[in-house]
Design goal:
The protein is built from three helices and seven strands, in the order H-E-E-H-E-H-E-E-E-E. By secondary structure, the chain is an alpha+beta fold. It has a four-stranded antiparallel sheet, with helices on one face. Strand 1 (50-55) and strand 2 (60-65) form a beta hairpin. Helix 1 crosses helix 2 (72-88). It is globular.
């Protein structure tokens, strides 16, 4: 209840301000997770399904289903792929539509979540189309650059990539 949080009560007026610098980093990292997911499919196969993520202004984590450690060559190929997508300067479209229409247009719905009748679709050219409510760049070139910091086992059958993008 609001009345139990720092004395706030229903009807109180509050003010919020977005830290533009942090938002810029977060949007770059969030869009990078979509490019990373697509690149993992390209390099190690469609079985590399997202199993979770964490996005922050200064870094991100991306968890995915995969049965073994990635090779150095696979990690380098994923980096090249993501950076090529970034360099292409692809428009990032954000649209709301019905769940059925989104899925019929090929949008990936992750985590077996329950979605409402209207969903938000993030489409990055012909690279990625996913249901997603997060903040994103308008064009991939805004990301700048991507680098894998670490690839490791999270648990049996689940791997984690930690990465950074931007300046």
């Amino acid at each position: 209840k609001l009345d139990k949080i720092d004395g706030l009560k229903e009807g109180d007026k509050v003010s919020a301000k977005v830290d533009i610098s942090k938002r810029k980093g977060t949007t770059a990292h969030h869009t990078t997770t979509h490019l990373l997911h697509a690149s993992l499919h390209k390099v190690i196969g469609e079985s590399a399904k997202q199993a979770g993520s964490f996005v922050a202004p200064d870094r991100f984590r991306f968890d995915f289903n995969f049965s073994r450690a990635m090779t150095v060559q696979e990690i380098e190929e994923v980096e090249r792929s993501v950076n090529a997508f970034i360099k292409q300067g692809v428009k990032v479209e954000k649209k709301e539509m019905s769940y059925d229409k989104a899925v019929s247009q090929g949008a990936i719905a992750l985590f077996s979540e329950k979605y409402g009748d209207t969903v938000r679709v993030i489409k990055i050219g012909n690279i990625s189309t996913e249901l997603c409510g997060g903040c994103h760049v308008d064009n991939t070139e805004e990301i700048g650059f991507f680098k894998v910091i670490k690839e490791e086992a999270l648990q049996s059958g689940v791997r984690r990539i930690e990465g950074v993008s931007g300046e």
